[in-house]
Write a structure and sequence with these properties.
alpha/beta, TIM Barrel, five-stranded parallel sheet, 8 strands, binds nickel (II) ion
Length: 255
């Protein structure tokens, strides 16, 4: 059995064939998926999906760095205001993204630090999105030093050295997805040395589709391809990868 710890199942990419996507996911051995929020705009669709699939699709709330713009204060207030509404499974996805835009880097850093503190107070994990902003991320981690939080580095593609460094700074797991199946993926090298106890599986569907479906829409059933690739890299049976990563995900998100 497998858990997809990063699944945008509420995305409109799945609107037309939702039931078929779900059937394939269950057939592939998926027992649960964690759905990260992005901003106010996705909130209703995310909750509708969570309510339609109790015990399977677990909702999260958070302000994504690429949604930090002019109205960032209203967006952050929205997260604060809705935190007490229901049971959430993480604050996420949150983080820094200097690939798409550098216009609001300062605000992204502040929004990230505040949401890490919110998560610590609520005893929830964080889901971290980090793209081309490692130095600023390390600055934020310094800023929140002493805050007792846990979380997952989503779509992890860093080096073994950075993995070790981050483990020394907070209680992190590392989300491995379709990128690991790409030719010359650096993360495959890092994975050889990483402990499977630090790894959770994810798809980030409908994006980051694994080989051999790269270029098409990603979907939750493809998490199985990620498990198989990790098994191949670590010289383990896919079932062993499933068992360990599922236990890691259950513990991290309290599923
Ligand atoms: Ni995502």
């Amino acid at each position: 059995m497998l858990i997809d710890t990063h699944c945008h199942l509420y995305d409109e990419a799945f609107r037309d064939d939702f039931d078929a996507v779900l059937a394939r996911a269950r057939e592939a051995g998926l027992e649960a998926c964690v759905m990260p929020g992005i901003d106010r705009a996705c909130h209703d669709a995310l909750l509708a999906t969570a309510d339609a699939l109790p015990g399977f699709a677990f909702p999260c709330i958070g302000l994504h760095p690429t949604s930090v713009g002019e109205d960032w204060q209203e967006e952050l207030d929205f997260v604060r205001q809705h935190l007490g509404d229901r049971r959430w499974y993480a604050i996420g996805e949150i983080g820094l993204d200097e690939y798409w835009s550098k216009d609001y880097v300062e605000q992204q850093m502040r929004v990230l630090a505040e949401q890490i503190c919110l998560a610590a107070r609520a005893d929830l994990p964080v889901i971290i999105h980090l793209r081309e902003a490692t130095d600023d991320f390390l600055r934020v981690l310094e800023e929140v030093r002493g805050v007792d939080f846990r979380g997952v580095m989503h779509a992890w593609s860093g080096s073994y050295e950075m993995y070790r460094r981050l483990l020394g700074m907070a209680d992190f797991k590392f989300g491995i997805g379709g990128v690991v199946t790409y030719k010359n993926a650096g993360v495959a090298l890092a994975l050889e040395k990483m402990s499977l106890d630090d790894v959770v599986l994810e798809t980030d569907c409908p994006w980051l589709t694994p080989v051999p479906f790269r270029g098409k829409r990603n979907e939750p059933s493809y998490v199985r391809l990620v498990a198989e690739k990790i098994a191949q890299i670590k010289g383990l049976a896919p079932e062993a990868v499933g068992e360990t990563t599922t236990a890691n995900a259950r513990r991290l998100f309290n599923l």
